[in-house]
Amino acid sequence: MTASETALILLALGLPFLGAVLSPIFYRLFGSVAPWLLALLPLFSLLQFLRLVPRVAAGETLTGGYDWIPSLGIRFSFLLDGLSLTFAILVTGIGTMIVLYAGGYMKGHALQARFLSFMFMFMGSMLGVVISDGLLMLFVFWELTSITSFLLIGFDNEREASRRAALQALVVTGGGGLILLAGVLLIQNITGANSLSELFATGNVLRDSPLYLAAFILVLGGAFTKSAQFPFHFWLPNAMEAPTPVSAYLHSATMVKAGVYLLMRLNPVMGDTALWTTVLPLFGGVTLMVGSLLAIRQTDLKQMLAYTTVASLGLMVMMTGMGLPHAIEGAVLYLIAHALFKGGLFMVAGLIDHETGTRDLTRLGGLAKAMPITFAAGLAGAISMGGLPPFVGFLAKEGIYEALATGSVFALIFLVVAIIGNALMFAVGFGVGLKPFVGPKVETPKHAHEGPALMWIGPVALGVTALLAALFSHYFNGHFSGPMASAVAGETVEIHLSLIPHIGIPLALSVLTVIIAIVVYMRLTAARAAADTLFTRLGPGPDTWFDGFVRGLVALSFRVSQRVQPGRLEFYITATFISVAAVLLISLVSFGEMPDLPSIPRNFELGHWVIFALAIIGLLAVINAHNRLTAIVTLGIQGFAVAVLFLLLGAPDLSFTQFMVETLSVVILTLVMTRLNLVPSDHRSMIQKVFDGTIAVACGLGFSLLLMRATEVPFNDALTQFFNSYSKVIAHGHNVVNVIIVDFRGTDTLGEIAVVMITGLAILALIRIRAGRSAEGRQGTDNPVDEETVR
After folding, report:
1. Distance (Å, whole) CA 393 – CA 476
2. According to its UniProt record, where is this protein located (predicted)?
3. Per-domain residue ranges of the chain
4. What is the pLDDT of residues 27-46, one digit of tens each?
């Protein structure tokens, strides 16, 4: 792509994030007009993607971007083919409708501007997921969808149910994201590819790798948690605690489809294996059945739709992994159809709730006259969801049945699952889109009337789009579903499904589905009771298990914290030195890096031996000191002895520094000790002394061996030459040591100064502490601190 085209795509990606910034400003400046103005941002992004449709339909794959971290081969780049472009159009197109819908639904809310800011960030995150070419960039946007959905689901943060649902969604999808990160890194390691476009060029490298199973499990961990596959499905219905605009967007074009997108995206390099064609259909089929049965059980309109989304996601995953001819066509057709009818039906449910004060199906009826536009939009969504002509849902259902009606036993099992699942979703769809509007008028908490244009323009537009996609199926298949299926399959795919009925098994199966669905719809109350009895007998499900898991995790964390954080400084120091000794000694032994026994240096003169003996005498004096103050003073003997050795061996700067450190350390510690009321002698038992001594010897031995091993390595004077060459030229200093400390290692020196400063503050605070209790539990401030307080 040209530089200008690349800039426009990156602008289309950035506009939703710009909308997050502008939302509060626009609401403050323009008031009720703000939603119309803000909707122009995703609309512009939509137009940028729509103009690329002819090129992608002709077989082009468009890439572009710029280097982000060139040294690591990471680019901020995008990839637009049939799959990513169709997703981008759904994200921005439905996103435009959602911005308008939210403007009407949240009208008068004190935090309406903040809500739309969160929505725009959510939109930009999902858009980044579907158009990213870089694997790590895809992961960054992937996790950003989890964070922004957390903000949206928990928007009504004063309600405990909202907070729980938000936390649950974040834990499940965020945890799955970390699993996906491991999968992405493993895929990069196996193939050497840093981007999707590079990955597609590797052919069967990933499938043939002995690490394929590990990569497969990690990818499924990310995809299944994000797209609510059984047993991770429970977070999605609970996310209905979010305001309805969030639900409509979440279920139609964004987060929950990210997992399906990932599986479709990786199908060319990970699909067509026994694992892929077994695990995906199995989990997808179970999710389809569980979701559809749980949907029948509900009476809340949003919950009914939420569980059918779980079922639909299962159907998409099942079809993506079937590995049968035309299975991919059925999967992509259903994905597009689901985005259109589910977005519209959620908006209809929100309209009903907004204008009647309830979304309980048992308290609704006869709303057609009061809400005619909403009724038309709901009926259109129900017809498409039921797979009836003349909407695009009919094409999707025909594509699914055409793929599964192959005659094999394997396909026959999943064909039965698809028929039952589709029939139940048909009944639920008409339960939401038809049942509240027909029958006798039921009194509702609020006087029912048609909602504002901001709220019904979205479901109407999505219903009309679903209708036009079916009526002009040749254009729709050639420009959207066909290129999308080709990208998923990794080869050119042509889709010829249309509204014209073709006598055959798929049509007969569609008729059978409708018959079953009508029976269930007519006996919806009895079906609901039967489903409720079934799940009651099965007992607690994954939702309850999640609560138990969280409680167990909190309890375990508390107990571990009590063990490893007992509040005793002595314990922390002991644990630290044990870890240091273990790291030094184990690494040297396990990697065969033990040094040779040292020999006595030839230039080690008598004076050196005297200083060395003085250090040993000082060490013995410390060990045998009768009180702590004497031990601290005699401890300085070792430091001064080392400083003299530095001086004798030709390092006067280092010797001077050592003298200063030892002098200040002894003086400061002595002053501190005189202000503390400590036990005059060592209170430890002999066993404790031996234990502590062993740790000290291990640490000293570890450092000694490491230093001896380091000195055995051939000396590399590259840094010496660099510092000698550039100290005066760059830093304008003749003293190389000073230049290294102040300029070349200035940040390191600053860190050391910060450590000294913090230590000084800690000492000052320790001196100012006074034991005892006043009238509120402390005594006067002049009492010295006892030893237990210090510990």
Report:
1. 13
2. Cell membrane; Membrane
3. 603-682
4. 999 988 999 999 999 999 99
